[in-house]
Amino acid sequence: MPDGGPFRGFCVSSDEFARRMVGCSGLAAHPGAIAVAVSGGADSMALCHLAHDWATAHGVQLSALTVDHGLRPGSDREAAQVGEWLRARGVDHHILTWVHDATVTSRVQERARDARYALMRSWCLDHGVDRLLVAHHIEDQAETVLMRLKKGSGLLGLAGMARVRDMGGVKLVRPLLGVEKARLRATLSDTGQAWIEDPSNENTQFERVRMRRLLAQLERDGVSAGRFAQAASSIARVRDVLDAAADELIDMAKNVEAGLCIDANPFLGAHQTVQKIALSKLLGRVGGRAYPPARLKLERLSAWMASADHSAGDARTLGGCVVRRTGRGDARAFHVLPESPRGMQKDQKN
Q: What's the pTM value of the predicted model, to 2 decimals?
């Protein structure tokens, strides 16, 4: 980025970004290759510029992935425009097209999000890339906390999004969680880089848009996005301790077929909170979903796993996984296997 300019000091510098990358535990050691999700909006374009500079400085291969959801006219042209911008900077760029049979009219953002992450995870696995950077920032974190608060999330849900999350063989990395959106826009403006404005960001039919407007109203009353993010960070420190206990439980799991198998007795003997975190992590590793299942669904699955009533069946599905109970007594075990794949990916390199 050039020195000087009207936004200097407000922008995210290369040095600051490097520190934030180190702050993401999944990037403590520099990988050989990373991918970055780029929609063409200001946040992801800024992330891509910063990540490209970082990757170049550290000898890391970077690829940018743009998903064309095909949900509105011109989305293919926008994806191509992103490719033109990034190629001008020497960035390897790929367009992944979501192929869906029918018009998507319900749960549009949720289904598009799930498809987006599934396509990008598949590309990363196919190309030997185990880290995917996404551009969630401090306002996104605050909106997430508000949405979870509205849904009656448990305490750990209010920790918000983690900086690093396992997504079935690919780590989802959020190096910009502590950065304000305005600073990302300033970073782009300082370089003269344009971006694409998604009209859905103003559509109040979507819950996240409504939460964004509520957050703006709260900010006028002194409750800023930063305050929400600080609260989430405090809860996250508690989550980190429980995560470590859950990881110890997961370390006992054995690879089996295409999934994992864990002994039931030590799993069910763990504290219920640790048990549920471990279960969520197991589903994430095998199912590859970017986001954990809803709390109530996870609690129902956990209760079924603890039940000795086999008349209720020996298999349940959640989070893209099939969970099977096997054996009796000391030989009890749970097999967590992926569901049959759904949908296909079309990969076009630009």
A: 0.81
